[in-house]
Each structure stands twice: as structure tokens, then as C-alpha cells.
Amino acid sequence: MDDTIAECRAVCPGDWVRPPAAAEIAAARTRLAARVAHTPVLRPAALKRVYGEDVWLKCEQFQPVGAFKVRGAANAVRSLSEAELKRGVATHSSGNHGAALAWAAREAGARCQVVMPRSAVASKRAAVKYFGGEVIDCGPSQEDREARLAEVLAATGAVMIHPYDDARVIAGQASATIELLEALPELGTLVVPVGGGGLCAGAILAARWLSRSLAIIGVEPAGADDTRRSLDAGCRVALDRVETCADGLRAQVGEVTFPVLESGLADLVTVDEAAILAATRWAVEVAKMVIEPSAATVLAALFQGGIPRGKGATAAIISGGNLDFDGAVWRRARLATMPGG
Description:
The protein is an alpha/beta fold. The chain folds into two domains: 28-68 and 167-333, Rossmann fold, CATH 3.40.50; 69-160, Rossmann fold (3-Layer(aba) Sandwich). The chain has 15 helices and ten strands. A six-stranded mixed β-sheet has the order 1-2-10-7-8-9, sandwiched between helices. The protein is globular. The model is unreliable at 1-14 (pLDDT under 50).
């Protein structure tokens, strides 16, 4: 076990189903420095032409598995003891977290099992296998995922690494915002996609850890707007039906992440499917960036004028680039009307 995580456990006893403490965020920042990519912060001229002013992009599509999820997965796996690593790790995922955990487990020499919906994007299922993970099928709902994962954990004794409701994972995701703030001290507004809420909660906690005043604006698909409804209701609200091409944002906001978002978001906006598809196409064809629909939500929010122009610089986190060019989503995106078109 890393000395840093031992210190964290002394400060923060108990299990991991909670937000990370400051010591854990600091430990994750140090631990990940040599294990994941320090992704670039770009200022595309093409984006300025559409939005009207400069916007900086933290490009997490350049991570080893093509998404920010590798930060939380790597931090969680590297926090395990030798005995825990021998048990292996398991999770449920629609794709990117599963691939990230498979990659992190392989790097640490551990077994990885990933419960995935049969309807998950084929290329993302293939990525989990490519990085050494074992794919275990389940139904499409959140309840299906959790029930199947419970069976796997009971049968194998594997260590569960939750996609977002885990202090180790959130602390790892916080490192993306820490890097961004270090690179862009004048940052005033940060736009972040929201699914389970791990990346956005990490952004909020990173800003607090650095004592930075930062307006963090979440973005989610209109067809998966449980966070918007939860914020309006003052408690977590589950949707009866989730329909969005942004497959990485279909998860319900977490019981750990929601209170962090509730206390720390400046705003949360929703974007419809047409806007997401148009932004995906624009990124590939105009900005020459391969990004997936979940990542394109932040561009869609900028294009539709949903992000207020506050003090300081504006930036967005591009969460991933695992776009399936053989899938129906890209075929639909190619027909979308691009911003300015």
C-alpha cells in the first residue's frame, strides 16, 4: 500500500463511499503524475469563431484509454493493498470506466471484471477486452447493472471500484481540474459534462482544495436529465426512461456525488440530441478533434448560448474521444446541421 493512502486512511477512516478529503486529493495528484497523461489544454480558433470568444479545452481524449476515467480508475487501483490486488477488481460500466479499470488493473497485474449492458457501444465493449478486462453481460437499466455486479462480487470476492461513488475515483478525477487550474490561473468558468457526477464533483472539490473561486457549470443530455430534476427536487430523482446518444452520461447521479454537485454547481444546463450530434460532427469535421457525444455536450451547451460569459477565462473538459465510427450515432451525427451551418 502507498504511504500516501495509509496517511489518508488515518485521516479519513471508514469505507470509500464518500467524497474524498483534501489529503486524498493531494495524494491522488501525486500518485497519478507519472501514471496518466498530463493532457493538453487547447484553444481552438474554430471554437472562437462560433462561440465569439476564446474557450480553452482540457483534452482528456488523449488519455491512454481515450477518456478521463483512467484517472479515477488508476488512483483507485493503486490505492489497493497487495492482498486486495490478488482478489482482483470489478465494476459496472457503459464503457469508458470499464476500459479504464481494465487498463489500470493490467498495469498493476490484477484481474478485472466489468459488468456491461448488452446494448453498450460495441467498440467500448471491445476496448474493455483489449485492455484485459472480462466483460459480463447485463440488462440495460441501472438496477440490472448493480444486481449483476453484486452477483460477481459475491462469487469472486473481487474489490468493487464504483464508477463514481468512490472517494478514490473522485479524487483521481479531481486531478484533471487541478492540472487545468495550474495551466490556466485566470480560469473563471469551467464547463463539465455530468453523468454519474464523478468528474464534476472532482472539479468542485479540486477548486475548493486549491481555494479557487470558480463557476462550475454542469451539462447533461435532455434525455438523461436526472441531475437537473434532482437539483430542482432537492433529492436524487431516478428517471423511468433514459434516451440519449451520449452513452457515457446515462448513469444516474450518485448518492455521493449529488450532494457535492448540489452545493458546488453554479448552474446545470441540458442539451438536446440534435445539439449533441451537431457538436460531435462539428468537432470532427471543423475542429479536427475526435470526441464522443458525451464530450460534445459541453460544446453543444456553448453553441446554444447556455453558458454565461463571466469573469476570467472559460474552459471546458472534453471527457473522451471514443467515438464509434461504425455505429449508428456517427451516422446520425453526419446528417446533423452544424453550428454556423
